[in-house]
Amino acid sequence: MDLRSLRYFIAVADECHIGRAANRLHMTQPPLSRAIRQLENELGVLLFERTPKGVTLTPAGKVLYDETGPLLGRADRIRRRVTAAAATAPLTVGTLADAAEQVSGRLVSLFRARYPHVHVTIHESDLGDPTAGLRAGLVDVAITRTPFDETGINTHVLRSVPVGVVIRDDDPVAGHASVSSTDLADRRWVRLPDGTDPVWTAYWTGSGDNDASPVLRTIQECLQAVLWNGTSALAPMDQPLPAGLVVVPLSDRPPTDLVVAWPRTTARNPLVRGFIRVTESCWYT
Q1: How far is CA 259 from CA 36, 62, 141, 160, in A?
Q2: Closest Cα partner for 98 from 46, 145, 153?
Q3: pTM score, two decimals?
Q4: Cβ atoms of 113 and 221 closer than 8 Å
Q5: Does residue 191 contact residue 210 with C-beta atoms inside 8 Å?
Q6: Per residue in 24-69, pLDDT tens?
Q7: Helix H segments across the chain?
Q8: Which residues pair with 144 in a beta bridge?
Q9: Which of 96, 236, 257, 264 could lock 144 by a disulfide, CB 3.0 to 4.6 Å apart?
Q10: What pLDDT, in 10s, does the model give residues 105-129?
């Protein structure tokens, strides 16, 4: 039995309902149900009686409930004493342009609840550094997008997003269901900074005339170049757009992955591992 499974058990017992317990735990019902069944299988007993209205504790479940409360209380006290003894630990998180908004909301609350002693610094990189500071050694872990040269870097995919071409809403192909790279061959594209990762550059820029375009470093600069100058740019299909722009799916380009990434040399760092676990749980529950 691990502490997480026991916390799940307590939530279900308190709420007498899988759905309400899932809401309390900020997760969906299927993984919670699986965790409870796994706990029952591990113990070899039925912990809950299932009814159309919810669940109730069996005699074995009542015993586990009475024993688990003090156990979790002691575990929480141990965690607080250990983190207090560790004082404040630093963690620098890199984000890339539009991925910066991913480091917010639920991810922040979950990480702060688990690691209240950690001082987090956010380093936001522009489009010239798809590793968001990892390659330069500026950050410990990053949330960014693929593809880029992953030499010396580990990644874990959080979500895959189709890619499209961003154009003005009066563009001749604006109403198309999709377009291919061939359809866009004669267009002028945004230009990324010189020296940018060639894997990243080849994916996010077209094969047309880029040399005459000014160097752009941010998502907003790219969008404004499309809006004002009719330049073309690629973006994830879920990219928020200003009025006057649309995104048309690009049929022959694979999706981009939103990933959590970290240097292979820091794989044993407990804070990095903790951030990765919290990030994964944020996207998968």
Answers
A1: 29, 42, 11, 9
A2: 145
A3: 0.68
A4: no
A5: yes
A6: 786 788 888 999 999 999 999 999 999 888 999 999 999 999 999 8
A7: 3-15, 18-24, 29-43, 59-85, 106-114, 198-204, 219-229, 270-284
A8: 259
A9: 96
A10: 678 888 888 888 888 988 888 888 9
